[in-house]
Amino acid sequence: MYYSSDIIKYFLKQKYIWKSEDIIYVSSEERVNKASGNLFKECLDQLSLKPSQICHIGDNLHSDVKIPNKLGIKAQAFTYTHLNRYEQKISNNTEPPLKFRSLLAGTCRLTRLQSQEKIFHNQIIWDTASNVIAPVLFGFVYWCLSQAQKKGIQRLYFVARDGQILLKIAHIICKNWGYTIDCRYLYGSRQAWHFPAIQEIGQFELDWIFDPTEFLSVYSVCERVNVNPEEIENILEHYNFERSIWNKNLTEEQRYFLKKVFENEQIKNLILNKALQFRQITLNYFEQEGVFDDIPFAIIDIGWNGRLQKSLSQLLSVANRYPLDGINGFYFSLSKRIKPFSKDNLFVYFADTNLNPERNFVFLYKGVLELFVNADHGSTIRFEKIQEKYIPILRGNKNEKAIQWGLYILQKAVIFFAEQLVRILEENQIKEEYILNISNLLLKEFLLSPSYWEASVFGSFQITEDQTENIFYELAPKYNLFNTLRLILYNKHIHHNVWFPASKIRSSIICTILLNQIGKGIKTKIKQKLKPINFMKK
Would you say 449 and 501 are in contact if contact means Cβ atoms under 8 Å apart? Predict the structure, then answer.
């Protein structure tokens, strides 16, 4: 060991570990080492102890375990401080400079080792947040702040719910690295912004109202536009949508015909009148939050198509408060681009449908990215005026499913990581391309090759595809034989946002084997096996 015993004692005293009766043996001072076994013998001689009276703990399997075991000393391996697979990928990636990747890998490890979690499920959340989620989200937020400063944007609105943890990271970066950008939280959602922005019922509006989620009922469609089915019961019944099926999942044919029903002029007028009532109070909320302050601003969202930004532009345009230079939006990724206003800009950090095809794998696993930025409150339904203040009406004050799963553990690890990185890394040592490169490596490893425990813990997180949150699904559901054959033969997943690599790991051995054969002609083979079977026909 190249440190002297005095220096090591100093380190231990700083952390309140050293006690006056403790003894330290350092190979450079004793002139013998552990690898030969002589340092252990020296210790035994000086303390007049038998090998069985000593327990040695260390991280080197040869010097700390094999050698003392040979001498009859109990030995325990402790390798948790070694770089894990994510930290090694950061450290071994030669594209960013050595110092940057060394400090980044060290911060990931430092964060991981700070865990106080006793439950294994929670430990997996903390470890993954330390190694994957924290560096990925930190990189995105740093990029947003850096781009905003370059473009002269003075205020950033982090849109709920994705923006909750992103805003916390932004405050840490601004405080430590001197950014003067005003960072704020802005409540919003598809339902809270899209609906009041409606001025006509055209194809754009119908596409949102009938967004093809796995579960879609008459009730959920009506809830998206704040209409009670009872208000249009006569029209629904005229088209064979009786009350008995209002809460049932609609077939593809029923969805098609219900979409035609909503082109009825009476229903259109009802929706437009309700949208007008919601619009003014939504604009009042925006004014209260400073959106009308004539300060250059941008919104920040995780993705995925820019539809929220278009609704915001429509709302501001109706109120004659649309900025002269348009609205800017910063996004983690965009799988498609809803046509924006001509002056609007949509800036993308990680993956764009038209660019960076090597990073488009994230579009297959949007649900996982949305888990990363989940918030501890429910989604925004609308806005109301209460005691001279405009406040968001939430689907729930607490996001109980996420909190029970371990959301606060995830957020705590991300915040700790950000606080440590800005402390040990100077801003001039980081560049957008460095952290983007690392984020790509980490996301590929986690999304495409999760460990069994990562698949189990994160795959059990419950997500909802429908903005009205009527039905929840596990992010990586376990496939049974029926689901497996349905996928192979008809390309039908359990839901639209299945994290498939994790589902394969979580499923039974037989299903996993079959699922791993997808793309290897298994569909043809199964059909050939089924072909000789004759079924009785009535």
Answer: yes
Which single residue is written with the structure tokens 């425990």? Answer: 453
409, 532, 445: which is closest to 87 by C-alpha? 445
Contact 111, 416 (CB under 8 A): yes
- What is the DSSP annotation of 155-176? EEEEETTTHHHHHHHHHHHHHH
Q: Mean pLDDT, to the nearest integer, of 195-219?
A: 88
User: SS3 of 397, please?
Assistant: coil
Of 345, 348, 343, 292, nearest to 315 (Cα)?
292
3-state SS, residue 350: strand
Bridge partners, residue 355, by sequence: 352
231-243: pLDDT as tens digits: 999 999 998 999 9
Degrees, nearest 5: CA angle 11-16-17: 75
Of 334, 308, 281, 336, which is closest to residue 208 (Cα–Cα)? 308
Which H or E run contains 184? strand 182-186
What is the pLDDT at residue 496?
Answer: 85
> Mapping DSSP to helix (H, G, I), strand (E, B) and coil, where does residue 299 land?
strand
Q: Please report, for the chain, how many H helices and E strands are present, in that order.
A: 25, 11
Query: What tokens appear for 410 in the block?
Result: 């995830």
Burial class (CB in 10 A: 0-12, 13-18, 19+), 418: buried
User: 318: which 2 tokens?
Assistant: 């109706």
Q: How far is CA 486 from CA 283, 455, 509, 531, in A?
A: 47, 22, 17, 16
**Are residues 502 and 128 in contact, defined by beta-carbon separation less than 8 angstroms?**
no
Strands 380-386 and 389-394: antiparallel
Q: How far apart are CA 185 and CA 230, in angstroms?
A: 36
> Encoding tokens for residue 297?
């601003």
Which amino acid is it at 262?
F
Return the HEC string of 332-345.
EEECCCCCCCCCCE
H or E segment at 401? Answer: helix 400-405
Q: How would you list the strands of the sheet with 345-352, edge to edge?
A: 182-186, 155-159, 297-301, 328-334, 345-352
- Provide φ and ψ at 220, rounded to 5°: -70, -35
Q: Which residue type, as a one-letter code, is found at position 147?
A: Q
Report the SS3 class of residue 352: strand
User: Percentage of residues in the chain with pLDDT exceeding 70?
Assistant: 96
Whether cis (ω within 30° of 0) applies to the bond prior to 143 is no
Mean pLDDT for 113-120 is: 95
In sign, the C-alpha dihedral spanning 482, 487, 491, 497 is positive
Residues, the chain, total? 538
